[in-house]
């Protein structure tokens, strides 16, 4: 699905309180998990030791880091929204971050989110608050839920 396009921040403001279309499915591979482990120095066996996870883990496979799930949100929002006049976007933070269900390796995830609130920020920007759920294909509980906050500038 193509990103929803807006000419400028003023046009984007009009979707406040509305859900965005759900994103494309993304497969979470072992290579992605290993790269995240290396980048964050978190190589706990549940994430990186495939053989041990198959034998000892209650999930019978490796799982993605919870923070890897959260880290995907920024990019996935970028796939849902394109503001033509935007010169820069910055991650501002997360509120109410939870990981209701682990993401088994090779699962497909996608983002469902609503633009809950938009505030003015400095002279040429906004602060956008997104209610996000990272869905896992064929699993009822989401991998990650949070309020994601982004700064956007023209």
Q: What topology does this entry show?
A:
Elements: E1 4-6, H1 9-13, E2 26-27, H2 30-40, H3 45-48, H4 50-56, H5 66-80, E3 81-83, E4 88-98, E5 108-121, E6 125-136, E7 139-153
Parallel strand pairs: 1-3
Antiparallel strand pairs: 2-5, 4-7, 5-6, 6-7
* Distance linking N and C termini: 25 Å
Described by strand count, sense and barrel closure, the largest sheet is: 5 strands, antiparallel
| Overall pLDDT confidence | 96
Query: What string, H for helix and E for strand, traces the elements in order?
Result: EHEHHHHEEEEE
Number of helices: 5
Fraction of residues in helices? 25-40%
Q: Please give the CATH architecture.
A: Roll
Give the count of structural domains.
Answer: 1
The percent range for strand residues is 35-45%
Coarse shape: elongated
Low-confidence stretches: none
Question: How is this structure best summarized?
Answer:
This protein is an alpha+beta fold and 154 residues long. Helices cover 27% and strands 39% of the residues. The protein has one domain: Roll (Thiol Ester Dehydrase, Chain A), CATH 3.10.129.10.
Please give a structural write-up.
With 154 residues, the chain is α+β, with helices and mostly antiparallel strands. It has one domain (4-27, 63-153): Roll (Thiol Ester Dehydrase, Chain A). Helix content is 27%, strand content 39%. The strands form 2 sheets. Strands 2-5-6-7-4 form a 5-stranded antiparallel beta sheet. A two-stranded parallel ribbon has the order 1-3. Strand 5 (108-121) and strand 6 form a beta hairpin. The protein starts with a strand and ends with a strand.
């Amino acid at each position: 699905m193509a990103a929803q396009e807006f000419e400028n921040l003023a046009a984007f403001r009009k979707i406040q309180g509305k859900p965005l279309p759900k994103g494309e499915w993304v497969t979470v591979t072992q290579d992605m998990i290993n790269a995240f482990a290396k980048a964050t120095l978190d190589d706990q066996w549940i994430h990186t030791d495939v053989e041990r996870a198959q034998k000892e883990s209650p999930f019978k496979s490796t799982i993605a880091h919870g923070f890897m799930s959260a880290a995907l949100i920024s990019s996935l929002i970028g796939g849902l929204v394109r503001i033509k006049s935007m010169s820069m976007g910055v991650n501002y933070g997360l509120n109410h971050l939870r990981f209701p269900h682990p993401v088994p390796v090779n699962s497909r995830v996608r983002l469902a989110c609503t633009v809950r609130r938009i505030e003015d920020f400095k002279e040429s920007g906004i602060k956008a608050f997104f209610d996000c759920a990272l869905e896992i294909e064929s699993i009822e509980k989401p991998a990650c839920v949070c309020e994601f906050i982004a700064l956007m500038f023209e």
